[in-house]
């Protein structure tokens, strides 16, 4: 795998919040990984951030089914949470996703790997490798 580092930056007024997103797409959009970070409340921990995301998924994603939820080591040294789930988007093609969460110094990090459910197991190793390769630079 090759490491890609974002090349964009911007300035904003002091009261604005920064949300960063990187999208990696497999050939012909057969799968993707989206990594993002956003400012979060100082009261958020990794667990409370992951729990809040889980509540959002279960209420907003049709036919949501959670398959796995556990701790995992992220960014080489931080304990994060990993959730695997499936759901059915409006196009009717069921997808499976692996999503991990971590809160570090007031920023919430989320990374999501997605593929149609029928192809997920075939792509699992690559998707998880890409997910776990994400880096946070401060």
Strand content: 35-45%
The count of strands amounts to 6
Assembly form of the protein: single chain
Outline type: globular
What is the CATH superfamily? Mog1/PsbP, alpha/beta/alpha sandwich
Class from helix and strand fractions: alpha+beta
SSE topology sketch:
Blueprint: E1 19-25, E2 31-39, H1 46-60, E3 65-74, E4 78-87, E5 95-104, E6 107-116, H2 117-132
Antiparallel strand pairs: 1-2, 2-6, 3-4, 4-5, 5-6
Organism: Tenggerimyces flavus
Protein name: DcrB-related protein
Question: How would you describe this protein?
Answer:
InterPro entries: Mog1/PsbP_a/b/a-sand. The chain is α+β, with helices and mostly antiparallel strands. It contains two helices and six strands; from the N terminus they run E-E-H-E-E-E-E-H. The protein has a six-stranded antiparallel β-sheet. The longest helix has 16 residues, at 117-132. 20% of the residues are buried. The mean pLDDT is 90.
């Amino acid at each position: 795998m090759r490491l890609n580092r974002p090349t964009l930056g911007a300035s904003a007024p002091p009261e604005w919040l920064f949300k960063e997103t990187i999208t990696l797409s497999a050939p012909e959009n057969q799968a993707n990984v989206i990594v993002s970070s956003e400012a979060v409340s100082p009261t958020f921990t990794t667990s409370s951030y992951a729990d809040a995301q889980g509540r959002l998924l279960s209420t907003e994603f049709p036919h949501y089914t959670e398959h796995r939820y556990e701790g995992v080591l992220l960014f080489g040294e931080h304990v994060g949470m990993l959730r695997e789930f499936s759901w059915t988007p409006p196009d009717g093609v069921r997808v499976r996703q692996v999503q991990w969460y971590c809160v570090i110094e007031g920023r919430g990090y989320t990374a999501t790997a997605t593929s149609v459910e029928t192809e997920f197991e075939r792509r699992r190793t690559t998707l998880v490798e890409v997910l776990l390769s994400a880096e946070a630079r401060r």
